[in-house]
UniProtKB/TrEMBL annotation:
<feature type="domain" description="Lipoyl-binding">
    <location>
        <begin position="563"/>
        <end position="644"/>
    </location>
</feature>
<dbReference type="InterPro" id="IPR005481">
    <property type="entry name" value="BC-like_N"/>
</dbReference>
<dbReference type="InterPro" id="IPR050856">
    <property type="entry name" value="Biotin_carboxylase_complex"/>
</dbReference>
<dbReference type="Pfam" id="PF02785">
    <property type="entry name" value="Biotin_carb_C"/>
</dbReference>
<keyword id="KW-0547">Nucleotide-binding</keyword>
<keyword id="KW-0092">Biotin</keyword>
<dbReference type="InterPro" id="IPR005479">
    <property type="entry name" value="CPAse_ATP-bd"/>
</dbReference>
<dbReference type="InterPro" id="IPR016185">
    <property type="entry name" value="PreATP-grasp_dom_sf"/>
</dbReference>
<feature type="region of interest" description="Disordered">
    <location>
        <begin position="342"/>
        <end position="368"/>
    </location>
</feature>
<keyword id="KW-0436">Ligase</keyword>
<dbReference type="Pfam" id="PF00289">
    <property type="entry name" value="Biotin_carb_N"/>
</dbReference>
<dbReference type="InterPro" id="IPR011761">
    <property type="entry name" value="ATP-grasp"/>
</dbReference>
<feature type="domain" description="Biotin carboxylation">
    <location>
        <begin position="1"/>
        <end position="449"/>
    </location>
</feature>
<dbReference type="Pfam" id="PF02786">
    <property type="entry name" value="CPSase_L_D2"/>
</dbReference>
<feature type="domain" description="ATP-grasp">
    <location>
        <begin position="120"/>
        <end position="317"/>
    </location>
</feature>
<dbReference type="InterPro" id="IPR011053">
    <property type="entry name" value="Single_hybrid_motif"/>
</dbReference>
<dbReference type="InterPro" id="IPR000089">
    <property type="entry name" value="Biotin_lipoyl"/>
</dbReference>
Length: 647
């Protein structure tokens, strides 16, 4: 029996595993990097061990430190969550050698499915349909071109050891193949320590449908239906649901049977997911198998009434599955969204920083939603890791009811700080095509307007609330407030100073004619515009550039800052070269001092929050100074390269 479980992960999945273990009476141990010292998962575990370092490779991927933490705390089992070491067969073997129960499948199964081109061969042996593919085993571009012709265009270059969209490049024709292979190989080597890539036929706009499988050590394997995860950005899932709006009972049975057959061929023990691409004709093809818990596992739990983490722990303890295939019956519909600190209007650029306030318990919020939070009521979205703030899940009798309930709950949440994809998620969930089940992998490409949806509340309403509440807060702090009425001036007739404010659409001068205000306090106001009254909550937070007023009204939200009359000198980046848009680690320096460059040329590549961020030359020039080196960590807005004017 497992008595003490070390959770080798962070964020919302670490919290999820800790909750499940605690409910079973199992002691828990958290590990954490230096930036995560105050993270919620650390406080929620019974014991915690600090890992030296900040980056993933220094901490959560450091096998020796994780095993040392297990020894120091007397842990007898390890749950890897997902990501990090969860699909590392060598780590699983090390855990077994150390006498630790590994909460996951046998290392041999992890190894077999961890190499994508090998996994596809095993899938074919099990009778699972696959797409044409070709492994690139040479460094000769001519061989790559020949392989591309055999596979057929369009195609994907895919890292064989990869996942999550890393090491993946889309190629529409032969002309772009060589550059895509080189780029994917470089990223794969950095991300996975293995630059092996293969080519795979690309299906244009399929659905991404996956089957949840569960196997015990007594030879029983069942599937728990399907999840559809078609709405993606950068080949990474954003919205997931169960069941799929287009999978019939007959198709579910066929897809489930092939997934079970693959698991049985592997002798699979544990929880795993077999992923497929599905076309409009009902044809499906194997994509990959993930030998771990999936991020989107809650939708399966909600629809099938199971606790997959508790099931993992029971299977690891040698227990039999408590149900058979005939017992697996779906009920209702569940939808999950991934709330990220990223800006959809800027190509989903991560936006690390301070989360001043994060609350989904405001009056009127939907308590039926399931929030799987990575952070607490405030915290720091670190540049070192994935930018996920939370997963949010709704379950209802129908798909439409679940989607609309989820959209409403998201809209009402108070999220103050970094840019997030919240408005995009709400817009997707309410979009007619989404509600009609028209969900394919190109959904966001076909609906670019959802990235910048119009404000739910007129901007002037929130501006009025911000101005009024800020004035009320200033007056409440004024020691002379009782000596003169509001607006009193020494010189009769002197005009009020015009103070601009900075908001979502840039700098504006408040023009509040026609706007009514009542119940004004430092915490909000009731604002009337065109006969409609809006109850606005206002929260003030210290932020770079001054105090920011965040306004929420249950449907809309925005941030406003009074522009200082005497602005502080801005620490502009020196030189005529690019600066880092986000904090991150330099992974490539592509120029040398004295080199002539042209506008748009890639100079430096940063990696932050599991994404690459190229820094480009804004104009033609000559490289005067390269300020960074590969492996160096740089803060946001740091100058990377100084360019001079070409002679």
């Amino acid at each position: 029996m497992i008595s003490t479980l070390l959770v080798a992960n962070r964020g919302e999945i670490a919290r999820r595993v800790i909750r499940a273990a605690r409910a079973l009476g199992i002691r828990t141990v958290a590990v954490h990097s230096e930036p995560d010292a105050d993270a919620p998962h650390v406080a929620e575990a019974d014991r915690a061990v600090a890992l030296r370092g900040s980056t993933s490779s220094e901490t959560y991927l450091d096998v020796e430190q994780v095993l040392a933490a297990a020894r120091a705390t007397g842990a007898d089992a390890v749950h890897p969550g997902y990501g990090f070491l969860s699909e590392n067969a060598a780590f699983a073997r090390r855990c077994a050698a150390a006498g630790l129960t590994w909460v996951g499948p046998d290392p041999a199964a992890i190894a077999a499915m961890g190499v994508k081109h090998t996994a596809k061969a095993l899938a074919r042996e099990a009778g699972v349909p696959t797409l044409p593919d070709a492994l690139l085993e040479s460094d000769d571009p001519a061989d790559w071109a020949a392989a591309g012709e055999r596979v057929g265009f369009p195609l994907l270059v895919k890292a064989s050891a990869g996942g999550g969209g890393s090491g993946m490049r889309e190629v529409r024709d032969a002309a772009g193949l060589a550059d895509a292979v080189r780029s994917a190989r470089a990223e794969a080597a950095r991300s996975f320590g293995d630059d092996t890539v293969f080519l795979e036929r690309l299906l244009d706009a399929p659905r991404h449908v996956e089957i949840q499988v569960v196997g015990d050590a007594h030879g029983h394997v069942v599937h728990l239906g399907e999840r559809e995860c078609s709405i993606q950005r950068r080949h990474q899932k954003v919205v997931e649901e169960a069941p799929s709006p287009v999978v019939s009972a007959e198709l579910r049975a066929r897809m489930g049977a092939t997934a079970v057959a693959l698991a049985q061929q592997l002798g699979y023990v544990g929880v795993g997911t077999v992923e497929f691409l599905l076309d409009d004709a009902g044809r499906f093809a194997f994509l990959e198998m993930n030998t771990r818990l999936q991020v989107e596992h809650p939708v399966t739990e909600e629809v099938y009434g199971v606790d997959l983490v508790a099931l993992q722990l029971a299977i690891a303890d040698g227990e039999r599955l408590p149900f058979g295939q005939d017992d697996v019956v779906p009920r209702g519909h569940a939808v999950e969204v991934r709330l990220y600190a990223e800006d959809p209007a800027r190509d989903d650029r991560p936006s690390p920083g301070t989360l001043h306030r994060y609350s989904h318990t405001s009056p009127g919020n939907d308590s039926d939603l399931r929030w799987e939070d990575a952070l607490g009521e405030s915290g720091e979205v670190s540049a070192f890791y994935d930018p996920m703030i939370a997963k949010v899940i709704a379950h209802a009798p129908t798909r439409t009811a679940a989607a609309l309930r989820l959209a409403a709950g998201l809209a009402r949440a108070e999220i103050h700080g970094p840019a997030t994809n919240r408005d995009l998620l709400v817009a997707v969930l309410r979009d007619p095509d989404f509600l009609a089940g028209e969900t394919r992998t190109d959904f966001l490409d076909r609906h670019p307007q959802l990235r910048t949806p119009p404000p739910a509340t007129p901007r002037v309403v929130h501006l009025a609330a911000a101005v009024a509440a800020t004035s009320a807060a200033r007056r409440a702090r004024d020691p002379l407030k009782d000596l003169a009425p509001p607006g009193w001036r020494l010189l009769r007739g002197a005009p009020r100073p015009v103070v601009p404010w900075e908001g979502p659409d840039g700098e504006v001068v408040p023009d509040l004619d026609g706007v009514g205000l009542r119940d004004v306090t430092p915490d909000g106001a009731r604002v009337t515009l065109d006969g409609v009254e809006y109850g606005c909550r206002v929260t003030h937070h210290d932020a770079p550039g001054g105090v920011t007023a965040y306004v929420d009204d249950g449907e809309g939200h925005s941030a406003w800052r009074e522009v200082p009359r005497l602005p502080a000198p801005h620490a502009a980046a020196g030189g005529a070269g690019p600066v880092s848009e986000v904090p991150g680690t330099v992974v490539e320096v592509l120029v040398r001092e004295g080199e002539h460059v042209v506008a748009g040329q890639k100079l430096v590549v940063l990696e932050a929050m599991k994404m690459e961020h190229p820094a480009l030359a804004a104009a033609d020039g000559v490289v005067e100074t390269v300020h960074v080196a590969v492996g160096q960590y740089v803060e946001a807005h740091a100058t990377l390269v100084t360019l001079g004017t070409p002679e």
